[in-house]
Specification:
Number of helices: 9
Strand content: 15-25%
Helix content: 25-40%
Shape: globular
Radius of gyration: 18 Å
Strand order of the largest sheet: 5-4-3-2-1-12-13-14
Distance between the termini: 11 Å
Oligomer: single chain
Number of strands: 14
Order of helices and strands: EHEHEEEHEEHEEHEEHEHEHEH
Amino acid sequence: MTDIQLIASDMDHTLLEEDGSVPTGLFDRIRALREHGVEFAAVSGRSIATLQGLFAPVRKAVTLVGDNGAVIERGSRRVYTNALPTATQQHLVVHAQRQRAGVPILSGVDAGYIDARDRRYIAQLGNFFNAVRVVPHLEQFQQDVTKFTAFYPDGDAYDRVEKEFDRPFGSDLSVTVGGVHFVDVMNPDVDKGAAIRQIGSAYGIPTAHMMAFGDGANDVPMLRTVKYSYHVLNALPPAAAAARFTTASNRRHGVLRIIDKVLADII
C-alpha cells in the first residue's frame, strides 16, 4: 500500500473507543503519516468544534471534516462551509416538532442548538457537540447552521428515518443516519463522499490513492468514493456492503492496525 496519499476515518464506532476517546497511539501515527506525505482526515457527523477538541494535539497535521462534510478545516484554517438556508432549517424544525420526529437540533459551527422544551437531553448530547445551547423557540432560529439533526433517545433512528425524513425530504436534501440515535439532514450536495472528493481536488490526490474507514450509513458515500475502503467488523450492513475490505472492530483498534500496515510499507 505504498500508493496511499490520504487516509480518512469516521469517528464513532470506527476509530474512537466506545467511550468516545481517542485511541492511544493515534497522534503518533498521524505525525508519522504526515512526515511521509500521507494526509489524515477525521470525517464525522459530529460538529467541527468537537473534532477540534479531540485532535487538538495534532490539529496542524490533520484535516477535519464535520457535520458529514458541511464544514472542512485544514490545520486551523476553515476552507469550506455549506450552511442550510434559514427557511429550510426552520421548516425541518417545525416538521420534527409537529410530527414528533425526534428531538430537533440545529448544528452551528461552534455549538448545537435545542429548544428550551428539550433541555433535558443536554447531558446525552454532550459527546457530540462542543457546546449545547438552549434557545426559547428553535423554529425561529436564524443564525447559520450546517446541519439539522433529529435525535432519537430510544435509538430507533434507522427504523424511523424513511417515513419521517427520507420520504418528505430525501429528493431535495441529503438525508442520512449518523448512528442509531441520529438522523442528519444537510444541503443536497453534502455528504462524506463529496467532502473527500473536495479534499482530493484541493490537495491534488486522486481517489485511487485514498483509503477510508467507516461503520454506518453516513459513511457509505465515502466508502464508495475511495479505492481502499474498509468497514470495521462492528459495522452496520450498509457500510459493510459498501466497503471492499474488512478490518477489526473499533474495540480491537482495526483502523490503527491498517494504518500500521501503511506505515510499514512506506517507512
